[in-house]
Amino acid sequence: MNKFEYSILTGRDQLGVNGGVVWFLSDNMEKPLGPQLQTILNQLGSEGWEVAGIGDVAYSGRPEILLKRQQA
Q1: How does DSSP assign 3-16, residue by residue?
Q2: Rounded to whole angstroms, how far apart are CA atoms 21 and 58?
Q3: What's the rounded Cα separation, in Å, for the pair 69 and 21?
Q4: With the C-alpha atoms ordered 21, 24, 30, 32, is the resulting torsion angle positive or negative?
Q5: Residue 26 exposed, middle or buried by CB count within 10 Å (0-12, 13-18, 19+)
Q6: What is the mean pLDDT of each run of 10 residues along the chain (72 residues)?
Q7: d(CA 11, CA 62)
Q8: From residue 35, how far is each of 1, 17, 44 by CA, in Å?
Q9: Model-level pTM?
Q10: What is the rounded end-to-end Cα distance, in angstroms, of the chain?
Q11: Distance of CA 36 to the CA centre of its chain
């Protein structure tokens, strides 16, 4: 049976950056991934992550991106 791990990509408002948002993975909110969402998704994809869904799971007004990848 396949086993998966999940993470959440969360955007936070940040003045002075393109688009006004910096992205973080939920398991490390102290280390920003940056403001370029497409670049971030491509990097995470190369690490095996796939977008599993999008929704406002934190009730923050900005949708979070739900990620999953198969465990080795």
Answers
A1: -EEEEEEEEEE-TT
A2: 16
A3: 24
A4: negative
A5: middle
A6: 93 86 90 94 97 90 93 82
A7: 7
A8: 36, 7, 14
A9: 0.86
A10: 12
A11: 11
Q: Where are the domains of the chain?
A: 4-70
Any residues with CB less than 8 A from the CB of 12 and at least 6 apart, and which? 21, 22, 23, 24, 32
Q: Which residues contact 59 (CB under 8 A, 6 or more apart)?
A: none
φ, ψ of residue 42 in degrees (nearest 5): -65, -40
Q: What is the radius of gyration, based on Cα positions, of the chain? A: 13
Q: Which amino acid is at 25?
A: L
Tokens at 46, concatenated: 């190369």
Q: How far apart are CA 50 and CA 58, in angstroms?
A: 20
| Burial class, 21, CB count within 10 angstroms (exposed 0-12 / middle 13-18 / buried 19+) | middle
